[in-house]
Amino acid sequence: MKKPPRKVTLSAVRAQAAECRACPLWRPATQTVFGEGARRATLMLVGEQPGDAEDISGHPFVGPAGRLLDRALSAAGIDRRHVYLTNVVKHFKFEPRGKRRIHKKPRWTEIHACRPWIDAELQLVRPQVVVCLGATAAQALIGRDFKVTVRRGQPVVSSIAPIVMATVHPSSVLRERDAQERHAAFERFVLDLRAAVRLLEQ
User: Fold this and answer.
1) How much of the chain is in helix, strand and coil states, percent to nearest 5?
2) Domain ranges of the chain
3) What integer pLDDT is reported at residue 202 of this predicted model?
4) Which residue, among 68, 114, 107, has the nearest Cα to 91 in the 3D structure?
5) β-pairing, 83-87 with 43-47?
6) How confident is the model at residue 5 (pLDDT cuts 50, 70, 90)?
7) Cα-flanking dihedrals φ and ψ of residue 161, to 5°?
8) In this predicted structure, what is the pLDDT of residue 55?
9) Which one of 80, 106, 178, 183 has the fewest beta carbons within 10 angstroms of its own beta carbon?
10) Secondary structure class of 117 (helix, strand, coil)
11) What is the pLDDT of residues 150-169, one digit of tens each?
12) Beta pairing, strands 100-103 & 94-97
């Protein structure tokens, strides 16, 4: 497994992550999708993995879920330019279905293989608040028995940052069955982001 370079900068880690071969996910993926955002962001949002649009563009949270996240950040009074956005897995895991590439949940071994990169991002950015987006990110960073449905929006004790909490992934909002349910899920997601802001301001 490749390790982050001894002289650690975000650009150096990003360059090395681009050559990562620690698990098989690099083979079908277009490219590594590393984190982006403010170098000294006080708020870091961590998702599961890049999606189809992210894999093609090379940037995190630019697909449908990313656009919904932008709306939610704006509604919560958060400027995306001041946030660091990343994922615990840096390659898109998918299964072909016709011309489409359908998201597939990463295995624990794949999450573990990517761990040096998220650890390096945490060490370099040093956010005050980390918000895990979805169960995979929360279980990777907080603990494998963590349940977002039970503890979403609540601060938890963790060594990765002074304040850590979890909420749903924005893609889960998009998967709600009808407009009314999507609206309710979106509003609750915004409330969780506002809770993160309050914790940051304390």
Assistant:
1) 45, 15, 40
2) 24-201
3) 83
4) 114
5) parallel
6) very low
7) -165, 160
8) 98
9) 178
10) helix
11) 999 999 999 999 999 999 99
12) antiparallel
